[in-house]
């Protein structure tokens, strides 16, 4: 059962140092720690020891030792487990301070992409050794008087590259392809920026100077879904977040997501989920 009904999905504020934060899983707690909440930054949660479960966007995952969760800004999650490990939190602004950084540093946004479906990453023992060393180096740098964001970024860079390697290994073991057209990643960013207002494929196709048919072919080849299906997935996710974690009426959610007719929005939601918006909200709190 979910909690926090009747209030907008809260953003948990974490202690930052220059848009970066690193601390043990149990070192920072407030009233939101074990409640559904979200963050306005990227987050790596590394469970070194854990027993229980972790909810990410309405799906509960059993947690295990040496398991990694990667969260994008805005994803709703809830911890319900005994845990040891580390939080790594940072903003895109921290990692890409300038154009030179974008040209020389690893583009971590690919790592946090979840077109192929969200899931935790199991980490091999040899990688955990490197993770521990990098965490120690980051802590050492942060505790020093001459704290350098550039040094932290390079340690973080190495951590994320290792995480990507583990993600690829997990995908290979599960026979899931990870390499796809870079335009799909660009499309994801466009959808994230405009999904509340732009519901036509032509808008997104124009951004790539492509026809809607060709963009659909690209996304279908790489994700097995059309642009419309990807767009609808994002709209439905946000609708679910608001239905479960806010006091907004179905009508208010409808307008916020770019629909003019609440009745049409309700049909849209039911066609995509098999249940009406109100029934979904009621189901969350039985």
Automatic annotation (TrEMBL):
Pfam families xref list: AraC_binding, HTH_18
Entry annotated with the keyword DNA-binding: yes
Tagged with keyword Repeat: no
Ranges of residues in domain HTH araC/xylS-type: 185-283
Highest taxon, organism lineage: Bacteria
Annotated PANTHER family: ARAC-FAMILY TRANSCRIPTIONAL REGULATOR (PTHR43280), TRANSCRIPTIONAL REGULATORY PROTEIN (PTHR43280:SF32)
Name of protein: Helix-turn-helix domain-containing protein
Organism whose genome encodes this protein: Chitinophaga nivalis
